[in-house]
Write a structure and sequence with these properties.
The structure holds two protein chains of two kinds. By secondary structure, chain A is an all-alpha fold. Chain A has helices at 2-36, 42-53, 57-68, 88-112, 116-124, 129-139, 141-156, 160-166, 176-185, 189-219. The model of chain A has no long low-confidence stretch (mean pLDDT 92). Classes of the chains: A mainly alpha, B alpha/beta. The structure holds adenosine-5'-triphosphate and magnesium ion.
């Protein structure tokens, strides 16, 4: 049982970790742009982002399922880099879609919390626009870290989407949350509780890290 | 002083949305001078400095600077922009140490090895003892002096100063004025100084301009500005009759 358990934990971390990496790559620049620039349609994008932040994961799972299925828009293309359903790749796509709005939304809030005059003053000191954006992100770095942790918290404990697009296949797509569902159904409460404990521990670590960073933000 | 034009402003208008707040037909700034801009609150002085620092374009008209013509829709090249810097009316410091704030502009230029310059800039403004303190914990006057130090360390050709002594006590005002005068004399730095304090303008500037509601009302040598102003409104301003 133990090797299987380690495998499940590792797969959970791997899927959510990679999804988080993608979410960060998309979410931080997006949040920075939204926080720093005023453009037509910005309000609409913000409304979409906020909707994304509260979107039910199971519905995201449904969309990804439809897209990736053999007759779906992406599934029918048969491109090798598009993962098939019931693979970790499909789970990563679903979790990325769930968490990038969280990363972008919290990053935007953090960037907007920086004094708007700072960017102009930094440019006056000779910064290129890229250096100026980087400086603002560094000023907001505690908030940006919080956005990454919030993104992680949103997917590590998520069950609906990974269940739909992953299928909870033993040794292939079974992660902590879907394993808990299965073991509970089978009546293996001890195992389900143990898995639940591991998941709680992971969420707890993420939240403590977030609280510590937020505390640091308030201290400064 | 021989006069060589550094900035030449022509038919400039600056508008925010529908409201135009600054209109200058013809206005020149000379290399190596100290030019004071005086005028009541809301006259458009800070807006003019932002354009002289190439942070915002004019809405109409042009600013010529060393063969470069700055106008609407244009971004100034980095090498031009880096010759000018501003000490802002309300400086915003980075959430880092005082030292790191002064080092910042040099780091942007890839210069990470300038301990001597940073230290001497801090010495000049009398803050060497606070180098390790976090900038956010400084008093208003200390923060303003850090803002001056982070500009001085860059050795700009042109230094724009927006009310640099507004938050300071008389002793510090004297120190800052001394630094400004020295900088102009020893390095030939062109200074544009915005001030509400006409006595400060009188002490420091070679030429003084009076701006009122976005219009240039008077521009003259320090001597002429006070002894023979051409416009009645200038007289009223000097005489302290103008309420602002
Ligand atoms: N970004 C902006 N958007 C809209 N209006 C602006 C903006 N910046 C300045 N203004 C307006 O332009 C006018 C001139 O402002 P400016 O800051 O240049 O005045 P000032 O002469 O520096 O005044 P003070 O002595 O109070 O600092 C003001 O009426 C101000 O409200
Ligand atoms: Mg001003």
């Amino acid at each position: 049982m133990l090797p299987a358990l380690t495998e499940i934990i590792l797969l959970s971390l791997q899927v959510s970790g990679i999804a988080l990496l993608f979410s960060t790559i998309i979410g931080i620049p997006l949040g920075a742009i939204m926080g720093l620039h005023r453009f037509k349609g910005r309000k609409l994008v913000i409304a979409l982002l906020y909707t994304g932040m509260g979107f039910p994961p199971v519905v995201v799972g449904l969309f990804v399922y439809i897209l990736l299925s053999r007759s779906g828009f992406l599934g029918s293309l048969n491109w090798s880099f598009i993962p098939s359903l019931f693979t970790p790749g499909a789970m990563i796509i679903a979790q990325t879609i769930i968490s990038f709005p969280l990363v972008a939304g919290f990053t935007m809030a953090a960037v907007m919390g920086v004094d708007p005059n700072l960017r102009q003053q930094v440019i006056s000191l000779g910064a290129t626009s890229r250096q100026a954006v980087w400086t603002v992100l560094m000023e907001a770095k505690v908030g940006v870290m919080v956005s990454i942790i919030a993104g992680f918290g949103g997917i590590i404990s998520e069950v609906g989407a990974v269940m739909l697009v992953g299928g909870n296949i033993e040794g292939k797509t079974r992660v902590l949350t879907t394993a808990i569902v299965l073991e509970t159904r089978k009546g293996n409460f001890d195992l389900a509780l143990a898995l639940g404990g591991v998941l709680l521990l992971l969420s707890f670590i993420a939240n403590v890290a977030m609280l510590r960073l937020q505390g640091k933000a308030f201290d400064e | 002083m021989k006069t060589e034009t550094l900035y030449s402003i022509k038919d400039l208008r600056k508008c925010y949305e529908e409201r135009c707040i600054l209109q200058l037909q013809h206005f020149e700034i000379f290399r190596g001078e100290i030019l004071a801009l005086v005028g009541p609150s809301g006259a458009g002085k800070s807006s003019l400095l932002r354009m002289l620092n190439f942070l915002e374009t004019p809405t109409e008209g042009t600013i010529e600077f060393e063969g470069f013509t700055y106008h609407s829709g244009l971004e100034a090249p980095l090498e031009i922009r880096r010759r000018v810097t501003t000490v802002f009316q309300r400086p915003v410091l980075l959430n880092r140490s005082v030292w790191d704030n002064v080092a910042f502009g040099l780091e942007l230029r890839g210069n990470r090895d300038a301990k001597g310059e940073i230290h001497s800039a801090l010495e000049k403004v009398g803050l060497a003892n606070l180098a390790r303190q976090r900038a956010r914990t400084l008093s208003g006057g200390e923060a303003q002096r850090v803002a001056l130090a982070r500009a001085l360390v860059l050795k700009p050709d042109i230094l724009l100063m927006d009310e640099p002594t507004a938050n300071l006590d008389p002793a510090n005002v004297t120190i800052i004025e001394q630094i400004a005068a020295d900088l102009n004399k020893s390095s030939g730095t062109t200074l544009v100084l915005v001030t509400h304090n006409i006595f400060q303008a009188k002490r420091l500037a070679h030429r003084i301009s009076f701006i009122l509601e976005g219009q240039l009302i008077e521009l003259g040598s320090n001597h002429d500005f006070f002894t023979s102003p051409k416009d009645l409104r200038t007289k009223a301003f000097i005489g302290g009759e103008m309420v602002y």
